[in-house]
Amino acid sequence: MAIPISYNIRSLAVRRTTTLMTALGVALTVAVLAAALALAHGLQTAFESSGHPLNLLVLRKGATAELSSAMTREVFRDLLFKPGIARSAGNGDPMASLELITTINLPNIQGSTGTVVRGLQPVGIELRRVRLWSGRWFQSGHREVVVGKYVARRCAEAGVGGRLRFGKGEWEVVGVMDGGESVVSSEIFGELNQVSSDFNRIAALNSVLLRAAAASSVPALRDSLNHDQRLNASAQTEREYYDRQTATGAPIQRLGILVSFIMAVGSAFTAMNTMYAAVARRAADIGTLRVLGFSRGSIVLSFMIESLLVGALGGIIGCLIVLPLHNVTTGIGNFATVSEIAVNFRVGPAVMLAGFAFALLIGAAGGALPARMAARSDSLTALREG
Asked: Which residues pair with 135 in a beta bridge?
């Protein structure tokens, strides 16, 4: 015969102050874990939304990131003749963009931060999921740039009409672009020849972004680029490239789990202490339950349910604490480009479910030993002490 759950609920209500304080300790632990998971999920979302399924990124063989790659104009001209590259609907030219990437220190409201400057050809804009938020696109032959929306938010000088100083002088901001949650929203775009000239890198560029004519031609085009010894290049899909960069979020996730584990130990001991006190105060109740015929297993289950209810309450409060972080934007370092990208916290169902499950685990850990002690209590002794 099982003890009714209403008995546990009334017990928690009687000890509401102690119950609430224990639940708050669990809630803070859950909030730390959920925040770390939400940030890691947001970073993963940013990189996943950056790649187009038909786009291939070509780097120098052996390079793991654009910043460490070297691509010459001669190699770029050679690979344009590869079969399987899509053609522009307007002029029929191959949809391939030779690009330069570098990092600058851009002043913002918090001091300065590393920001990616990308020199690219006009077709490079067409190859990306990006739209103009305000202003216009840069013109060839002019010292003009278009900044991502997150760059415009962080830097007061990065609005339309503003001027940014990098390279050999000042650049006029003529537009703000919106790449959604992708890394494009944290970059600065300029015309390839102007940017490469400013950084004295006319010949030594970084990468080529190109689009395959169809999904079926992606593997053949990639293999053709990888096996051509004249190019000395390595091709991969754009999504594969950004998937590898999600490793940036791994240290954050591991740190969050470590801190949460340390806090969880403290929360579990708090819950255990609370349940031990409850067992001591309810000795007569336990003895009465035993005399009425309730088994030791029923008593163990009853106290475990009570501890789990405290953990569940803490889980709900913890999820409510972290919920306002959803879609809040923060900056995080991208080790591949030695720069900062904007990331939105993503407090989704999976994150909240993980936090709630962690709270139940804390409740179970805190209630196991007190429940066992309650079940081992002698009924007659408990009644005399009560």
From this structure: 175
